[in-house]
Amino acid sequence: MNIDPQLLTIIVCPDCHGDLTARAEELVCSGCGLAYPVRDDIPVLLVDEARKPA
Predict the structure, then answer these.
(1) N or C terminus: fewer CB in 10 A for the chain?
(2) Which CATH number is correct for 5-49, 2.20.25.10, 3.30.1490.20, 3.40.50.300, 1.10.230.10?
(3) Cβ-proximal residues to 1 (8 Å cutoff; 6+ apart), any chain
(4) What CA dihedral angle connects 18, 46, 49 and 5, to 10 degrees?
(5) Residue 8: Cβ within 10 Å count
(6) What is the per-residue pLDDT across 1-54, written as a single tens digit (0 to 9) for each?
(7) Could you state, in order of their start, the residue ranges of all structural domains in the chain?
(8) CA 13/CA 8 separation, integer angstroms
(9) 43 SS3 class
């Protein structure tokens, strides 16, 4: 995954507005735990596309 670090400082979870952390091929919210996929180095920040926490 190749996401600009500056971009990670400004994007937030669309569900709870928590911070996002890059892990493997997804961005994980520190607030609600939703994991958003990253496809072709583009974050897909759609709640319907997010994986729910276990």
Answers:
(1) C
(2) 2.20.25.10
(3) 22, 24, 25, 38, 41
(4) -60
(5) 14
(6) 888 889 999 999 999 999 999 998 999 999 999 999 999 999 999 999 999 987
(7) 5-49
(8) 11
(9) strand
DSSP secondary structure letters along 1-54:
----HHHHHH-B-TTT--BEEEETTEEEETTT--EEEEETTEE---GGGSBPP-
Q: Is 20 helix (H, G, I), strand (E, B) or coil?
A: strand
Q: What pLDDT, on the 0 to 100 scale, is given for residue 38? A: 95
Contacts of 2 (CB under 8 A, 6+ apart): 41
DSSP three-state, residue 9: helix
Q: What is the residue whose two structure tokens read 């952390």? A: 21
